Amino acid sequence: MHNTIIQDLGILLLAAGVAGIVCKRFGLSVIVGYLIAGIIIGPHTSPVVFIHDEARIKELSELGLVFVMFSIGLELSLSKIGRMGVATLAATALGAFFMLQFTLLLGWFLNWSTMMSLFVAAMLMVSSSAVISKIMQELKLHHDRAAQMALAITVVEDVVAVIMLTVLSASVTSGDGGSGGGVGMVLGVMGAFVVLLIMAGLLLMPRVLRKLEKKNDPEIQTIIVVGLLLLCAFLTVKAGYSMAMGAFLFGAVVAEIKQKIAIEKDFGGIKYIFSSVFFVSIGMLIDLRMLGEVWLTVVLLGAFSLFVRPIACGFALVIVGIPPRQARRGGLLLTPLGEFTFIIAQAGVTAAILPASFYPVAVGLSILTVLATPILNRFADPILNFMDKVEPRFVTRAIAAYHGWLQDIQTRRSGRPMFQLIRGRLPTLVIEILLVSGLLIFSGRILTEIEASFADTISPETLGYIFWCVVGVLVLIPLVAVWRNLSAIAMIIGEGLGGSPDTPARLQSRALTGVLKATAAVGVAYWLYALLPLKTLPGWGWAIIGVGAVAVMVVFSNKLIYWYSSWESSVQEVLAEDSRAPSQVREEARVALDRSLGEWDVGLDDCVVPRGAEYTGRTLAELAIPTRFGCSILEVERNGHVITATDSGLRLYPGDKLLLLGQQEQINNARAFFERVAEAQGRSVEDSPEDSAETEGVFGGSVLETFVMPECERAGRTLADLRISQATGVRVAGIRRGAEQIVNPGGGTRLLAGDCLLVVGTIVELRVFRNWIVSAGA
Questions:
Q1: CB 37 within 8 A of CB 28
Q2: pLDDT value for 102
Q3: Which of 224-238, 598-612, 649-663 has the lowest mean pLDDT?
Q4: Under 8 Å CB-to-CB from 455, ≥6 apart: which residues?
Q5: Contact of 325 with 114, CB cutoff 8 Å
Q6: What is the dihedral of CA 527, 528, 529, 530, to 10 degrees?
């Protein structure tokens, strides 16, 4: 039966492919098809034995999980998380927190254990970005600010799911039952491991991939990357965490490197094969006969999720400053559950926290929410109108006052420079502390493996001395950086609170700095004492290592600083590289463009010039779009190229994609004009063959920026006199003057000193514009 695995794998992939085709035909995710395929060929459904070696298939499913998590991490780089903005990250965290609390309340009501409630909450925390993106496309919500933030939240939710999966698995292993102290310890140690793994990856992976790139051999590159991926997943398991986290982090590290695009392309086929194996294997574990027992659970949990998730996510969006109606709109979009529901359900069943019946529950929940989400969002306006109607007036006033307070905080200038200087150093300090902690915590586990390998060659005591001396040198490099940051923060606080250098309070600032440094030194000593495995060596041995470490730090402090600076510089160089594909750059630029319009009460939308339109070949001056409709054309995309210089002489041709800026009513009027022309020719805008896949991407050539008009000779003149577009390429899209706001101002509008201008152009054009204004004031 040595060929059984070949037969089983062939049947599995064929069933997955057929079921995937059928589900896509009905508008469902292929993942649903994979699960159905698993149910059909699984041992619980068919009287015919399709799969003979289920144990081997389960092993392949674990391999599939590694590739699924790697592909998720590959789509979510560390820099992308940074570009999400504080509001998106805060909304995601708050939404997950509220969902957790609601589920714990439900678990208390249903008499679930705490761990079971936590696993169910994790299942309900993550939305399907693919479903949400499809709904946004169908309902033309690509330019809706709340919809874009909802899509961004789904990306960050993947990180939340990985954290929950790791914390829950570690809590089950440690047996703390999800207690607060145990979870806090797990999070701290996990944070140290994550920083250690990411920093090692950012240091080593770019060098490996650069050398592989020079060989120009994609086959060898793919083989080595797969080997490193599997090794990283294995090491994560050895460290006591889920292999899913290791694969995810490895993908996030690779996503930062410019070779990411080639790797993503080479991994496409492998990812599809093994991800289908993973989801089909989950389907094989589902016994449809259990549906008679769990259908009520599916309905209740589905109703709970469809009702509570919009509330939790909508409230989170309100807290970060999104207007209530937009926040509720985003909450309605965040209802479909994705692939992490199955992954977490599998982990819960494997850990014997969830009953086996939760396999069909997870599938039922996903299908139910995926089918219900489009219906909810098609009737979003009546739902939102009802919610606006029943919302108490005092709640509306409280939210308005809270949002006004948030805007006041955002526009108010920062306080003391001391806090700004400290705030800039804190993230680096936290990362350095976690890095040192990771080196000390996991070095002990590495030593155990080394001792087992060299037990017959060298004595454990000698090996211990050698090992900890090497680790000590490695730890000293970031430890010096930790102390330098602590000393700098102590000096900043001392100078900030101790008075000016020209006053007698200078002595107080020195004394305060000294006290703070002494306190920091005691804290560092206690921190190292708590982390060092003191029982592995005699006390005098640690004393010798400590004295040697201090001597090295004193004698070679400059060398240690140089090594750390070199390492830090190489990491920053990797993070500064843009590993995104051009389409991804344009998509993220468009999201940033839309977000910057929120406070101006204007939006973006696009139209396509259809074949045979009567205005084909006419210039923008002849069409007079701003005069007729009040909106303006920011960009024109033609054959995949973005034209940002949309002056009056630009002509429109079939297939041109126009980016419109204005208030919603103005944009709707312009769209009606284009669609009415298309209907007169018997074709719709979407039917234009020029609007091919090559031009389906989003705009990204222009950038919006606010600019305050200074006192200069150009102040007081009209836009027609200034001819800003001709001189710099920049267009003025809006003017804010006190309480007055002018969107798409005409040529007769005067620019006054102190006006806040909303200007649009490329980065180069905006730089030319700023220099042009400054030169006038000189």
A1: no
A2: 92
A3: 598-612
A4: none
A5: no
A6: 50
